[in-house]
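Example record used in the benchmark description.
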Amino acid sequence: MTEATLPPLIQQMLQPGFYPHAVTEPIELIQTHISYVLLTGDYVYKLKKPVNFGFLDFSTLEKRQHFCHEELRLNQRGAAGLYLEVLPVTLANEQYHLNGTGEPVEYVLKMRQFPQELLFSALFEQGKLNETHLEELGRIVAEYHAQAQTNDYIRSFGEVSQVRAAFDENYEQTKKYIGGPQTQEQFTQTQQYTNKFFAERTELFASRIQNNYIRECHGDLHLKNIALWQNKITLFDCIEFNEPFRFVDVMYDVAFTVMDLEARQRRDLGNAFLNAYIEQTGDWEGLQVLPLYLSRQAYVRAKVTSFLLDDPSVPLAVKEEATKTASNYYRQAWEYTQPQQGQLILMSGLSGSGKSTTARHLALQLGAIQIRSDAVRKHLGGISLWERGGDDLYTPEMTQKTYARLLNLGIILANQGFSVILDAKYDRQQLRLEAIAEAEKHHLPLKIIHCTAPLEVVKERLVNRTGDIADATVDLLESQLKQAEPFSEAEKPYVQIWDTTQPH
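Model output (structure tokens):
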């Protein structure tokens, strides 16, 4: 859009004299399909476009004022320092005034500006986004969700009819793109998958409601809405304009971040985020709805990108790029609905033998879910992951419960097509044989990776271990060595022995 075709207010907001503070010239304008965003140096000003897309209605001044205030309120949760105030814009003698006296003609949201290179999307493009960032993000999103509001009204949005409405609307609004960026086959199969999911998994949706996993979430948690601001991960620009997009299953938020990283061909980073989040929350059952929401998030990106094709003000070159982008997202949405072969991998070995490190690397390579017995045990015991467990956490009964839950989760998730790594000592034949029997019963491939390292290396690792949720210390080694049972002939075909001091 050339400057001459911009609304008069935006034209004036591109002039330094409009602001009561110094600006960095030239003022930069970013447009989305719903907003104008002006970057002035220290501050950002955001205006809502007078549009009505059905799922979003900013068509009147009153609505734009209301949603500016909602945006300010809701973003205090993840980005309190960034969001400052809502200001009126007035008009006198064809001149617009920020925070002027008289009748407001528009409202703007004022925010602190931070360098765009601090966005996760920019860090990604610079090759600076790593596993550690994504693991930290997983823990931060887990905390955000733990503090997010829920009540009967919010939970009602987890009903199948409510969840489904958005999917049906997406399909309805994208029929016209079949033969363009979308193909008939992908459209039909994606829709069939979600229809079947809603028809067959009603109990799963009911359990998500009962267990309080429907909350006031972020709703738009992709890399452009996450920043490393003042060395702290900040979640901003949450959905303020639509309750059904915000009152959602926590997995809806998680899926957006995972989908975005996978769209950028970095499944490993998505995996690091996902495993850190789930370990923190203990919501491994939630993974059962993840493929549904992954597909939905990719589909929404496809839909929104497709909308650009209908906008007469968007240049042809941008439309060509948008067609390609939308096509990739439609394909990704379809891929998430395709059946996958699940598998179980049992880790085995002494504390300090390198099981969890090996499991983590394997998870990143395979896109697998790593379930650590330490985390399962502490969730069962009702203590924080970072708290040291007392003797009551390590009774034979608690160990039995831990392994039973590990295997139960492994079977549920592998049956749904996930590769699952059960990361525990698995030092008893009985525990291993139970897992083998269950895997055979469900026709799931299983392997056992037995980690070894010289005893002095194991001791050194345990002595130097910091910042980890595992409680095992070097004084337990002797009893572990005594208790470990060798692999029987029945188990040996499943076993691979890995020396963790060697590269694999």
